Amino acid sequence: MPDKPMFKKLDFNKIKTYPIKDRKSKVSVNDFVDLKDWQPGDQIEKLFPKILRANDLKKIADEVVLSVKNNKPVIWGIGAHVIKCGLSPLIIDLMKRKLITALAMNGAGAIHDFEIAFHGETSEDVASEIKEGRFGMVEETGSMMNSALEKHFNEEANLGEIWGKEITKGDYKHKEFSLLVAGYEHSIPVTVHSAIGTDITHMHPSFDGSKMGQGTYNDFKLLTSIIASLEGGGCFFNIGSSVLLPELFLKGLSVARNLGYRAQGFTTVNMDMIQHYRPKENVISRPTQDGGRGYSITGHHEIMLPLLYQMILSRAK
């Protein structure tokens, strides 16, 4: 005889149900894309549903405009890839409109910006050049950026100011595409954060590590001052930096709070093609745990930033 079954089938006829009208639903037709008044040529935002990240993007644009209205900073921290995606004109326009009030970038970002200004092209083929030890070895970038650092250096100057001044006052054919110039001309702080040994200009024979170190240290102190002013509002964006800028933001925030600035109740945004650990913790979660809101938006910069740009401008009229 077979053993008696250990379990019996449950009687599903006894399951209790309830009317759908009594259920709390997360999505309704009121959240759907509304095409009733849509016409070709209308703002793309009208095609966004009121759901998930599309709704977050709208809220982010709202937060930017509110921050500017309340005289709170809107800080954009960008990785070099943002420049390589051809998005500098959008960022420059937001700077001119005072919808970005401070800009932070890594050393590679400054290099791409500088090369665009004097050469109109940037981004070498690393895979090809590294085979022969030629990666990063172009003459002009290293000599020109290091020469500018030598020429404009003083103990209080920061790298963004130094290179912005150089391009603005020099004979650079494509300076209208330079973020460094936009900052210098419109009195918007641009900070450059360089880790020694990570940028191609550090390999050039003319490199002066002491001046670079002092300049980027001054940038860190300036960025920390701006972070301190996030007290009670403002926005910090981390766009395309997986390690350096998230670490700088967290350290700068800690210094600001250590010096007595509350620096709470602000909005943080991480935008990247994939979500990394440090931006999630150091930009989105830890800084806002006592107030404020963090948003994560995943997508290609060349698609997401034009969308955000259009949404910000539509609110800033």
Description:
This protein has 317 residues and is of the alpha/beta class. It has a single domain (77-315), classed as 3-Layer(aba) Sandwich (Deoxyhypusine Synthase), CATH 3.40.910. Helices cover 44% and strands 10% of the residues. It contains 12 helices and 6 strands. The protein has helices at 52-69, 80-84, 88-96, 107-119, 126-129, 139-152, 159-169, 179-185, 209-228, 244-258, 277-285, 301-315, and strands spanning 74-78, 102-106, 190-193, 235-239, 267-272, 293-298. A 6-stranded parallel β-sheet has the order 3-2-1-4-5-6, sandwiched between helices. Helix 1 (52-69) packs across helix 12 and helix 9 packs across helix 10. The protein is elongated, with a radius of gyration of 24 Å. The mean pLDDT is 90.
Outline the fold blueprint.
Layout: H1 52-69, E1 74-78, H2 80-84, H3 88-96, E2 102-106, H4 107-119, H5 126-129, H6 139-152, H7 159-169, H8 179-185, E3 190-193, H9 209-228, E4 235-239, H10 244-258, E5 267-272, H11 277-285, E6 293-298, H12 301-315
Parallel strand pairs: 1-2, 1-4, 2-3, 4-5, 5-6
Helix pairs in contact: 1-12, 6-7, 7-8, 9-10, 10-11
Summarize the structure.
The protein is α/β, with parallel strands linked by helices and about 325 residues long.
Do you know the CATH topology? Answer: Deoxyhypusine Synthase
What string, H for helix and E for strand, traces the elements in order?
HEHHEHHHHHEHEHEHEH
Structural class: alpha/beta
CATH class division: Alpha Beta
Low-confidence stretches: none
Strand proportion: 5-15%
Shape: elongated
Number of strands: 6
State the helicity in percent bands: 40-55%
- The number of domains is 1
The whole-number mean of residue pLDDT values reads: 90
Compute the separation of the termini in Å.
83 Å
Fourth-tier CATH superfamily name: Deoxyhypusine synthase
What is the architecture at the second tier of CATH? 3-Layer(aba) Sandwich
Helical segment tally? 12
> Can you summarize the main beta sheet?
6 strands, parallel
- Radius of gyration from CA coordinates: 24 Å
User: What oligomeric arrangement do these chains adopt?
Assistant: single chain
Strand arrangement, major sheet: 3-2-1-4-5-6
